[in-house]
Amino acid sequence: MVIGESKPVAEILEMIKDFKKVVVAGCKGCVTVCNAGGEKEVAILASELRIARKAAGNDLETLEYTCERQCDPEYIEPLDDLVKDAEAIISIACSVGPQYCAARYPYVPVFPGLNTMSIGGATEHGVWKEFCQACGNCIIGDFGGLCPITRCAKQLLNGPCGGSSEGICEVGKGSIPCIWQLIYDRLKNLGQLHKMQEVKLYKNWSTSRDGGLRTTIREELKQ
Amino acid sequence: MTAEYTAGSKLEKIFKSGQKAVTGECGPPRGCDVEHFKHKANFLKGNVDAVNLTDNQTAVVRFCSMAAGRILLDMGIEPVMQMVTRDMNRIALQSNVLGAAALGIKNLLCLTGDHQSFGDHPQAKNVHDMDSIMLLHTVKTMRDEGKMVSGTELQGRPQMFIGAAANPFADPQEFRVIRMGKKIAAGAQFIQTQCIYNMERFRKFMEMAVDMGLTEKCYIMAGITPLKSVGMANYMKKFVPGLDVPDSYITRLKGVPKDKVAAEGIKIAVEQIHECLAMKGISGIHLMAIEWEDHVPEIVEAAGLLPRPVVD
User: Fold this and answer.
1) Residue B312 burial (CB count, 10 A)
2) Is B91 an interface residue toward A (CB < 8 Å)?
3) What is the CATH number assigned to the segment(s) B10-302?
């Protein structure tokens, strides 16, 4: 899923300092699962903003709504009634959400209320890690099902580098496992260590962001 | 290895003559103070066969290794230009390989480079379009097949003697020699190792390299960095991943009066040089006297490696 993290309230307050009435729009998709942008977080953020503005002697009115998703235009539509009474929108969906709002409401300012962190998953309660960089051409089958593009700090396809020590990457002050050690261990378990000996050559990055904005088309679904 | 030269650099000729080679290192400055750079490089002239020019080492901005290479050529010193894949994509890297060859640089060391989080611009974007092994393959293909990564034909092939680095002390230990073998398969003709302090582990590494036949395919240079002080030794031990400084060296440095620590460090380095040169498969010494270039003549002399060979 897409992992999000709330922006500091002070940053959001600065964004909306010129407005008296804003919509706070959440999303019931990924950001609900990672506790960053669902119904609960909408309510918390809206009240934090109101309290801060009240304390500053500059009252703020908030209108709250959590969309089924913010990455489909039809699910943005329910915001219409709220937006017509508001001066701005704060979307706490992943960064797709604010952009869909911007597309639907050409004359209404839209601000992101969270930072989109990664495509990842929970590894323990309250901890989410990155697992994919959406390079558009998955190669993890060659690496024991683990992704060196995302999980190696240098994106090596021929690791591990000299900075792998006792299973830990030299980047991250001891907090990041060396993915190449994990790939090595896994290939060893699978009896496929010979795969580590092959020289891996150039990756085609044209399917990644480097090739320009990506559009995925499924002809059979297109109308 | 054939007697025919791939690049005809002095370094390549010395290796092929069967003599032990010595390379040094000179980091370009964090500014464009050419005189300071030349001053440091002058200590190396005549005392080593070629001088490595680091490419923004530890991700700290310095003047570029290609410009430094041209300056050394003008001074009559042979450069080993280092290139890292951290900062450039395949377009820029290949362009620089061609540019370096056009300037007369004949030795190229291909590296991935330190992560930018260790340097002076931790907010920088990194590139990593390629890794060091791909860059080795790129340079070899450009030189031997006259083709770029894209397959485009080159007009004029870069005649480079191609090198790589190896760290015998990182993990997984049993994979380090295999990874060096990958570098050799991709195009490395010489290897310069990470600084060696744990001689036992290095000996094992070299035994594996000999057993795998790698020393028949490639010239391996042992990396030596003299310990300037107890503080430096402790730093290397504690903070540089994979660098294993044995307590015995630290005890030796601590056991001499403060004004004799540097001399003891040099003594240790000379002993290490002798020990490495006695190992099967070692073709030379890569002496990385970091910001201690002025001591290189003394170390090389004490190691009995002067005068340096003359080749045509």
Assistant:
1) 5
2) no
3) 3.20.20.220
Q: How many angstroms separate the CA atoms of A109 and A101, rounded? A: 9
- Give contacts of B208 with chain A, Cβ < 8 Å: none
Q: Does B194 touch chain A (CB under 8 A)?
A: yes
Half-sphere exposure of A120 (CA within 13 A, CB side): 18
CB contact under 8 Å between A164 and B242, yes or no, is yes
Domain boundaries, chain A: 2-118, 133-211
Q: Which of the residue ranges B69-73, B94-98, B215-219, B241-245 would you say has the lowest mean pLDDT?
A: B241-245
Q: Do A184 and B117 touch (CB under 8 A)?
A: no
Amino acid at A172: G
Judge contact between B170 and A164, C-beta under 8 A: yes
Query: Which of B94, B128, B176, B237 is the mutation pick for testing A, counting most A CBs within 10 A?
Result: B128
What phi, psi does A38 have (nearest 5°)? -90, -170
pLDDT digits (tens, 9 = 90+) for A37-73: 999 999 999 999 999 999 999 999 999 999 999 999 9
Which chain B residues touch A201 with a CB distance below 8 Å? 134, 137
Concatenate the DSSP letters of all residues of A127-182 into one string: EEEEEE---SS--GGGGTT--HHHHSTT--SS---TTEETTEETTTTT-SB-HHHH
How does pLDDT run across A86-108, given as a tens digit for each residue?
999 999 999 999 999 999 999 99
CATH code, A2-118: 3.40.50.2300
Pairing of β A127-132 and β A114-124: antiparallel
Domain map of chain B by residue range? 10-302
- Tell if the CB–CB gap between B133 and A200 is shorter than 8 Å: yes
User: Cβ contact (<8 Å) for A199 and B86?
Assistant: no
